Amino acid sequence: MSAETMWWHRGLAPSFGLLALVTCVIGLFSVDGQRLVPFAAELAEPAHHGRVVSHMMTGPLGGILLSRAVACFVSELGGWHALYYVGAVLMAVLAVPLHVMLSLKRERPCIPYRRLGG
Q1: Hey, is 111 helix, strand or coil?
Q2: What tens digit of pLDDT does each residue of 33-42 get?
Q3: Is the pTM of this model over 0.70?
Q4: If phi over 0 gives left and psi between -120 and 50 gives alpha, with beta otherwise, what is residue 18?
Q5: Which keywords label this protein (predicted)?
Q6: In angstroms, rounded to a whole number, what is the distance separating the alpha carbons of residues 42 and 33?
């Protein structure tokens, strides 16, 4: 089941128990944010790693700071279920450009583990 589907079901939860279960499942499978930063750094030129990582970290930090205000606004307009519907739609829309942009993986040298230490 995709993350978008799980968010959609979260908005339709008829009881707190089902909401808690779906929330736990989403938490178990929501590691994409942690995977995007090193993946973006890997795709960048070595001289630009620091700049790429700082740009990539701006998104999650900005999201953390703005999420409560946006959640209050969306919930006020459409109830608390609307927040999960909006989240599902945004994730589905962003999945396509992320897939296209991040599938352009460059070749990288294969260095044996013993040679990494120096």
Answers
A1: coil
A2: 777 788 888 8
A3: no
A4: alpha
A5: Membrane, Transmembrane, Transmembrane helix
A6: 15
**Alpha-carbon dihedral sign for residues 94, 100, 101, 102:** positive
> CA-CA distance, 32 to 40, in Å (whole number)?
12
Q: How many CB atoms lie within 10 A of CB 22?
A: 21
* Crossing angle of helices 32-43 and 49-78, rounded to 10°: 150
Q: Residues 73-83: pLDDT tens digits?
A: 888 888 888 88
The 3-class secondary structure across 2-49, one letter per residue, is CHHHHHHHHHCCCCHHHHHHHHHHHHHHCCHHHHHHHHHHHHCCHHHH
Q: Round to whole Å and give the CA distance between 2 and 111.
A: 34
